[in-house]
Amino acid sequence: MERVCYMKTLIRVIVLILVAGAITGGVFYYKMKAPSEGRNKASTPAPREAVVITPVEEASQAREAALAEEGSGATTPSQVVTGDETKPPAIVRKVLIKAELEERGKDEQAGFDVVSSIKEKLAQSGVGVVDDEKTAHDGTVYITYEEGQGEAYGMGTFVMFYGTKIDCTVKVEDASGKETLPELMMFGETPSVVAMDEVYSSAVRDLTQSLQYQQLGDIVAAALKEKKASGRLVEFLIDPSLGEAVTSIFERTGYELTTPREKAYLALAGHDLDECVKIGPPAVEALIRYYDQVNSVDYQKDWQTIGNILTALAQINDPVGVSVVRREVEKISTETDPPDDFEEGAATCIGAIESIGGEFDIATLSDVSRREEAAVATAANKASQKLWEKVDVKAEPPAAEPKADYSPRAVLRVKTEPWRKDTPQNVTDSIVKQLKAAGIEILSNDAKSADGIVLVEYAEDVDRAEASAGGTIARPEEVSCRVSLLNLKRKHSYQLGSISVSTNYDARNTKSLYAPVLEAMQKSEEFAIMGPRVAATLGRTVSIGGLIPSIIKFELQPAIVEIVTDADYEPTNPVELAYLAIVTGKFDECVSLGKPAVEPLGKYLAEELKSTKDYAESMNRIAEAAAALGKIGDKAASKDLRAVLKTFQPKDKPTKRKVSEDAIGEFNLGAAGEDPDYYDSEGMVDSEEGAAAVNKATIAVIEALGKVGDAFALVEINRYTSDGREEVAKAAQVAKSELQARLKQKH
Asked: Are residues 568 and 716 in the same domain?
């Protein structure tokens, strides 16, 4: 009886703790069924900070002329005020609101006042609300609003509460009683994961952040024949969640789409890309917005449609449209788990870049050509050959007797986004400094011949549709710098490095836009070897020696191996020979080299610990490197070996090993947590192969420390003398005795 009472009390305490945590927002609960389908399909994010980037200046004259001739009531991005507070628009239409409300939220907490909220939306679009039917008005807005019980939420099978679901319908009639907006349905619901104090508010937020609700003011105004509001709705003709309603309003109110821009949106609503090409530059904005829709994460990516859109943009050949084409082709090389239409669609995308691309696209196409899809690789190689023909710098004639310290000559070219007048000079200067320090002579842009072309490209993550309209652009959420090299003698391209950073800076300080890029570049191992890499690639073989120590870094290894192979480099320095022996797995050669191989082997152990490749393979290579250090017998290896052993743990504790945050995601081990430098790898050694590999590595390191360790190594070895693995404990006991005897003999 006492046991039963105790269990009941314990259950009550647990429930009280959970409820208390929920009330304070400390516990998140999960929806116990899948989210509802068929509700809001699109939402509008919160407005971003005021614009800071200059308008497009390099856009074609044809586009500017066409936009200037429109004379439409539509408000283009350049006319929209996105800065500080502005005066509310003048009231141009008045309506009477009739509402049917069922607001469950008001019984629980401060409910959502939907009528007041909609009044604010209408006022923002110049629509006022009258108090009664006797007051003159242009139409009537009917609102039906209902809140109901949503899905169950809880932990496991225990239901804690129910979510909220909201249905809101708006209908508009003009003054004569004619229906001009038959029915606009909007929805809101509690999300899948929610804190208890946000169950209701999160459902309201889901409703009010939907695209339909955000545009409600203009929708009502347009239904009452307000032309400026109708003009602002034109771009939503191609939106899946709003297009049908906008089309209905235009048909019922007789709004005529007369300008080139409006006709482009109308054409795309019917998927007519050929008509957009005929319209020309004014259609670029619509094409980019259509591309954004097809490319959205909310919808399955349609590669063939994307290819057709890029082809249309390439045919129009507008600067901003071309930038969209180039960005999409870059994505092809990294596409994982491609859909069935990928091969044909990607080939179409590549065909688009072939007609309008240039030297900056050659390296991208080289990456794309390595894909296994035959049609994609063939299209990339064909396009690359065409673009090489456009390169306006010829290769330097080969020297009669090439020298190891030859100073290569290179042209440096910089490309920014079409809307940016200035260049990030501080970043470019840093790159030039590296190149000159490596013995490279930088030529002027109009040089007729050189050994290579270094290409520096800056990119910004912005709304390119706004840019295409010639308007101001919101600050980018991300900026990047990519550097590539064209070897004119070999007609070969190389990706030298790429840096992308979030823009956590003051949006109004344009000088700091690329400051995070420079900071990241200065810390990047890839950029640290850029100068010697360019020099070595263009014929300065003396620079190769400086690259060899970096060959053990896994992200740099392919590039350095390629340089060594292409140059037929044959090192004579024993340290360089040791590094090359390590990356080819010839650890016996390291033993033959002796002391010069100790430092390379120690650095290799540190790199291998950070490896994200096969765990068993990594452990086996650590074992081989440690064994080689033991055979060499140099006490200088003790520190590196101790560092390795510290990352392991005896059997009765979790096995730990250094790893990058990328690897944590790759191995599906969750977030890095408070200690991102380590992860619990016990699950990695559950397999027979993994367990054998980690045992082998542990024993090899312990045995090596027994031969070369110092007094500090005794502490590390001693931890394993009572290890649960018999072979590990035995190795530790032998190594401890061996090391103690050696240290005693020394004294």
From this structure: yes
